[in-house]
Design brief:
The chain has 12 helices and 9 strands. It is of the alpha/beta class and 329 residues long. It has a single domain, classed as NAD(P)-binding Rossmann-like Domain (Rossmann fold), CATH 3.40.50. The strands form 2 sheets. Strands 3-2-1-4-5-6-8 form a 7-stranded mixed sheet, with helices on both faces. A two-stranded parallel sheet has the order 7-9. Helix 1 packs across helix 9, helix 3 packs across helix 4 and helix 9 runs antiparallel to helix 10. The site of NADP nicotinamide-adenine-dinucleotide phosphate (NAP) has 24 residues, from loops.
Length: 329
């Protein structure tokens, strides 16, 4: 158990690292303007998070869709994005806790892609942003929400996402809500454990989860921001199959050509590991609520969101494992 906890600690350290800049808004003008979703792919075909590691990553539609557009990408720390070169993207500094910075970010823009990490303040930050965006002339918000967002959910993350969705609807702005299941790329949080011990640990039991590849989310977000076909639509986005963590481990094993093992741990062990990492209690409780939902089978269903949004199938876990194998090797 101690060994397991240690790995959960290491893995989770990474889970709170930044994804990629959080709000993407686009300037107005005669040409279609778009915002940039997380993990959009660079012009060279590599994900921004995968510099020089995943040469086999295919190109995604988002790259083409962004050509000829002007995009503003927001981060609190510009030094973190120095190495990220993305087509037509201007990185600018902004903070949800500094509404003047968000007014500057939104000035002259038409559409915004909205995400923050899940913290106690996320609901307040996002709702404040919606007001600023509306006052600044933003017409359309594409919000990264979560599968089964619901004001009455037992999961706090799902409740805050529902509250933000309600605020966007109430604002009268055009909206598109992306409601993804667990990210396949979340397994990258366990990469040190997988690299060093060929194992990863979580309180997932035998839960089957239709995890989604964030590259699919990127494509849907770009599509929502660059055409009007997805205006006022909600997309529940999952992968094409529901796998247990043990099943994901088997597919990673095949991609890496060595055995990777998933080790189930009790929720309290996960809680202790996350708390030891310094994760705030609100987030730890939220994550445990998520894993309890997984164990109840509430993230199992395969949803038709990708087909509805882009008329194509979602990426499979096998494709994720193949493309990201260099990061776990
Ligand atoms: N992980 C999953 O499996 C999963 C599944 C479904 C839905 N989601 C949803 O995806 C969203 C992202 O979650 P995550 O864990 O991936 O988040 P994250 O990567 O930890 O954070 C996302 C971004 O939020 C920005 N941010 C945080 N505080 C900010 C502030 N005060 N001002 C400006 N930007 C701020 C950070 O940008 P900078 O650091 O660059 O400033 C960071 O890049 C959440 O809403 C979550 O509910 C996640």
């Amino acid at each position: 158990m101690c060994d397991g906890q240690a790995k959960v600690r290491r893995a989770s350290q990474a889970s709170w690292e930044a994804f990629i800049p959080s709000v993407y808004v686009s300037p107005g003008g005669p040409e279609p303007r778009a915002a940039l979703p997380p993990h959009a792919v660079q012009q060279d075909g590599n994900s921004p998070g995968l510099h020089g590691t995943a040469q086999r990553l295919p190109r995604y539609a988002g790259v083409t869709a962004l050509q000829g557009m002007q995009v503003r990408a927001v981060t609190r720390d510009l030094s973190k994005v120095e190495a990220r070169r993305l087509p037509n993207v201007q990185f600018v500094k902004g903070d949800f806790d500094d509404l003047d910075s968000m007014r500057r970010v939104c000035s002259g823009m038409e559409r915004a892609f909205l995400l923050t990490n899940s913290t106690e303040r996320a609901e307040q930050q996002q709702i404040a942003f919606v007001k600023v965006a509306r006052e600044s002339g933003i017409r359309h918000i594409v919000k990264l929400s979560q599968l089964h967002a619901d004001a009455n959910s037992p999961g706090r993350f799902l409740r805050y996402h529902a509250a933000v969705e309600a605020a966007i609807r109430a604002s009268g702005l055009t909206f598109t809500f992306l409601r993804p299941n667990l990210y396949m790329q979340g397994l990258l949080n366990f990469r040190h454990s997988i690299q060093q011990k060929s194992a990863f640990f979580a309180a997932a039991g035998e839960a089957r989860i239709s995890a989604v590849d964030v590259r699919d989310l990127a494509d849907v977000a770009v599509a929502a921001l660059t055409t009007s076909k997805r205006d006022n639509k909600i997309y529940s986005l999952t992968g094409p199959e529901a796998l247990t963590f043990a099943g994901m481990a088997r597919q990673l094993s095949a991609a890496l050509d060595r055995t990777i093992t998933f080790v189930d741990v009790p929720p309290e062990a996960m809680r202790g590991a996350l708390a030891d990492l310094g994760s705030p209690a609100w987030q730890v409780d939220g994550l445990l609520e998520e894993f309890a939902m997984y164990r109840r089978g509430e993230a199992t269903e395969v949803q038709p969101g990708m087909q509805q949004a882009l008329d194509r199938s979602p990426l499979s876990f096998a494709e994720f494992a193949r493309d990201y194998a260099p990061l776990f090797a």
